[in-house]
Amino acid sequence: MLTRATDEELLSRARSGDEPAFAALYGRREGGIYRFALQMSGSVEIAEDVTQEVFLMLARGGSDYDPARGSLCAWLYGIARNLARRALERRGDWVPLDEENGTETAAGQPSPLGSLLRNEAAEAVRRAVLSLPGQYREAVVLCDLQDLSYTDAAEALRCPIGTLRSRLNRARTLLASKLQAARGCCV
Length: 187
Fold this sequence. Notes:
The protein is an all-alpha fold. Helix content is 72%, strand content 2%.
């Protein structure tokens, strides 16, 4: 049964021409890839393009995927990361990080009031995440918003787990600071 098959089993079957296996893999991973690209870029258009390109690459054979190097899920997020980063660079929205010193180089039914406050808080968090330097944003989106394991996120980002943890720590500190500042200006 396709729902019980691992991603790697579905890919193997898809490589052999099993279209339902590819469709099952697409159905399993498309939503997460789309949300990742959307959270990284803030653009529905970029998210749609990235998602489409990830699965086109997979449909063309996924020949670059090596199970010895990590999970298929991490590989797909790695592709999505690279595509989203390129799209943001082309648009001029990618905020790089100075790797040497770690500094930024750029800057029930709810009540209507409860819903409004939650929506405003979610929008503030979304803006704060989008304002993070790229490497920090990637770590937060993968680990905190997409719930990837540290191992899969580190594989997708092609960095050691220690580096991922460091980026997450710095990102969470920056987010807390940004959200505190935003809360302070509106109180």
